[in-house]
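call fold(seq) -> tokens
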Amino acid sequence: MKEKYYLNFNDLNEEVQERIVQDAIIDLEDEQDKEELQEEAALMNMDYDEFITEKAERYMINFDFEFNV
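ret:
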């Protein structure tokens, strides 16, 4: 997991937000087996991409952010 994100407060565009979500997805797939995550998505009748994105967004609470204003 990346230890800390340094972000410019005025530069939180969609690209930056997507990069952070992708980092969270990578962390989740590293911590848990991707097949287990896919099974969990199937049990919830969800598309894997939708499932992992939602899970990553909840997981991001573990990240440290430092904002430059």
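The radius of gyration is 13 Å.
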